[in-house]
Amino acid sequence: MKPAVVLLSGGLDSATVLAIAKAEGYETHALSFRYGQRHGVELEAARRVAGALGAADHREVTIDLAQFGGSALTADIPVPTHRSAEEMTGEIPATYVPARNTVFLALALAWAEVLEASDIFIGVNAIDYSGYPDCRPEYIAAFERMARLATRAGVEGAQLSIHAPLIALGKDQIIRRGLALGVDYGLTVSCYQPDLDGVACGICDACMIRLKGFAVAGATDPARYRAGARQ
C-alpha cells in the first residue's frame, strides 16, 4: 500500500477524505493540529475518526497561530451566526485563519517526505466555503507546483500530488459519498463554537451548511446540537 498523509481536523469533510484515501488503497497517515483554535474538541473527534477508519498512524502537531490572532477561531472575535448562503460567500469570513492551510500543507509535506509518500489529501471545498482563499482549486494547484520545486523528493523526480477530492462537491454530495464509504458522522465535530462536550451550536456557518447538506442528502445528522438549535 502506498503511504499518504491525510489532513484530519475531526470535521465532516476531513473524515470523508480519510475514508476516500483508504478506499483508494492508500496506507493513511492522519495529521491533526492543535493550532490555538478555541474549539479544541475537534481533536478528540479526529482521534475517534482516525481510529474508526483505521489510519495506520495519527500525529497531532502543536503550533500557535493564536499568537497572531486575526480569526474568530483563534482570537476574541465573534463567530458569525444565522447567516444566509449569500452572506457566507459574499466575502472572506471572520472564521478564516490567516495562512492556515498553507501552514498545514507545509507540515504535511514535511511528513510526506519522511514517509517517502507522494500523496497528500486535504478536505478543502470551493463550493460551500468559497469565501476562503485557501480552499480554491488554483491555490491547491499552486501549492502542488511549489511542493515539487521545494523538496528533495520533487527535485529527485517524485511526482508529489495534493489531492482535494471534495473541492467541487456540494455538502450533500460529500455526505452521500461518506455514507457510502461507511463514515460515522456521529464521530465528527464541525461546529465553530461547540461546548466542551462537543455539542454543536446549530447556528454558525459550519453548522448551518452541515445541517442543510444532510437535509438535501435525505439523511439524518447524528451530531448533537444545543437545545433549541435549528436542526
What does this entry look like structurally?
The chain is of the alpha/beta class and 231 residues long. It has one domain (3-190): Rossmann fold (3-Layer(aba) Sandwich), CATH 3.40.50. Helix content is 38%, strand content 11%. The protein has eight helices and five strands. The protein has helices at 12-23, 41-52, 85-90, 100-115, 137-150, 152-155, 171-180, 205-217, and strands at residues 3-7, 27-34, 57-62, 119-121, 161-163. The protein has a five-stranded parallel β-sheet, sandwiched between helices. α2 (41-52) links the parallel β2 (27-34) and β3. α1 (12-23) crosses α7 and α7 (171-180) crosses α8 (205-217). It is globular and about 55 Å long. The relative contact order is 0.17. The model has no long low-confidence stretch (mean pLDDT 93).
What's the overall average pLDDT, rounded?
93
Integer tally of domains: 1
Question: Can you count the beta strands?
Answer: 5
Q: What is the CATH homologous superfamily assignment?
A: HUPs
CATH architecture type: 3-Layer(aba) Sandwich
Radius of gyration, in Å, reads 17 Å
Would you tell me the structural class of the helices and strands? alpha/beta
CATH topology (level 3) name:
Rossmann fold
Task: Sketch the topology as an H/E string, one letter per element.
Answer: EHEHEHHEHHEHH
How much helicity do the residues have? Answer: 25-40%
Low-confidence spans: pLDDT under 50, at least 5 residues?
none
CATH class: Alpha Beta
Shape: globular
Main-sheet strand order equals: 3-2-1-4-5
Give the N-terminus to C-terminus distance in angstroms: 40 Å
Largest sheet: 5 strands, parallel
In percent, how much strand structure appears in the residues? 5-15%
User: How many helical elements?
Assistant: 8
